[in-house]
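anyone else get weird line breaks when pasting these?? whatever heres mine. first is seq + tokens for prot A
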Amino acid sequence: MKIMMKSVWEYEQKKIAEQNRPEAALLKKCIDLCRSGDHAAWEVSLEALTINPDCALAWAIKAYFWEESEDFENALKAYNKATQLNPNDVDSWYSKGVIYQQQSKFQKALEAHEKALLIDPEFASCWLAKAASLIGLGNNLESLNACHKAIELKIQGLEAASAWFLTGNALTELRRHQEATKAYNKAIKLRPNYSYAWCNKGLSLIEWGKYDEALRSIYEAINLRPKYTKFWVYNGNCLLKMERYEKALEAYERAIELDPKNTEAIKQKDCIVKQITHRNK
């Protein structure tokens, strides 16, 4: 369970208990079950809603379980109900935004995350989520500002790595490749097995024209996730830029082995085969 979510739930449950509301005991039981990973919490949240259909916390808990089961449509409905009943439910606003991001609805995601940040301006994870939505919308300078805000909040570990990764992504989109490479390096230093950071560093280096360094970076990503098709496609693209056609062909063939319907790999393979055939005539 998300740590932030758990703390918010506990705080809200205590307020409900202080008001002597009938669903208070059930909500406490529900949170305790969630803490231990017991999915019986779902049934308890439904029971709490039977007692009080307007309990925002019960709707938030119900939404969480919909989200965990990847039923995002029902999760959104439940989070909407939670925020309607409690407009200050910061975590439900945040979670709504995350779902919208997964659906590539970046404007809706941004609106939800901005609501959450109005409630809690020091919610570092939400600044990072906002940064990702802004990149999706092409607002890369604003995304950089959101990343810097998260970093200013003294985030550590995986969150800090994510902040530098997103910084690198925004800088790459702005064609500031030297700065992007430095940002990816910071992400990798914090999280050496961050395959996406290795890969995106390589892609930025390709755009910068530093193909040898790019290739090494993409190979690092492949070593970490050898069955991830896109890494092999990017590897092929880099080799193609270097005019190493046989090696590029091998990379695209590996991508097609992993995903026989990968259109980019198929197209690039066909082009190379034609070039090699023409050259050997």
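and prot B, same format (seq, then tokens)
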Amino acid sequence: MADLDVHSARAYFLQHVIPEYESLQETLNDGFFGMRREIRALGRAAEACLHLADHVARDSTCNSTIEGAPKAKLYIEALTQRSSAFALVRDVANCFKHGAITRAGARVASLDSFHERWVLVRYEDDSGFYYDIRKTVMVQTLSGAMASAEKIVRLALNAWCEELVTLGAIPSPAQIDDGKPLYIARSKCPPTPGITFLCEEGEHFSAKPMEAIYDSEHAVLRAPSRGDRIKTNVRAYFQVHPSRFSSTPRHLHRTHLSILSVEGDGTPQ
């Protein structure tokens, strides 16, 4: 086993950046929605991607060609100019740090651009339609385009793998766990999809859904088109926790079950 510096760029990438992305994936697929958990997981993953630039600039084993090293300011600007993936994840990370961004050329305006959603996905096999639930955080860029949190961070990781290989910090692109696959077989889905909403007494709660259809031809999730039939029930568990300002212990939460009826035909709302 190689005797590696625990503070090297390689160590930070392997022991912090990748685990934060994999933790984001775990959060998006754990079946619990609410209390800003998805937003927090995105923030940690994006910030890790941005802070890796500081570690690279300080790493004497790979920073010989980095202008301004060991300071990272010029390096971050250079990465922003030549990597759209890094530029976007930088803006996402800085939204969490500053709340809003005023930098010229920024692609995201503020934390108001982040939208947590639970997603009802329709699949189809020889027996007909069936459904599953996943979660995402959609990020609206200043151009009006929407991008998912997991895709933003994954593309930044791809860019970092290429950069670190070029700098000699890692020997090859790293293996990264992308979590739950887009396609889920009927045998892996419950007859009635379900999700648990986490709430806190007296605090804001929002649980807006999205609908998606698995496109087997292109192996992607797409938005429903006009005429796409979506009809199912969802088992919604509302787990209500006592206020942090009350004397009731936090573990004494209440859980209520509701059956939500979801029906649509792809018509824009």
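btw re prot B: DSSP finds five helices and nine strands in the chain. The chain has a mean pLDDT of 93.
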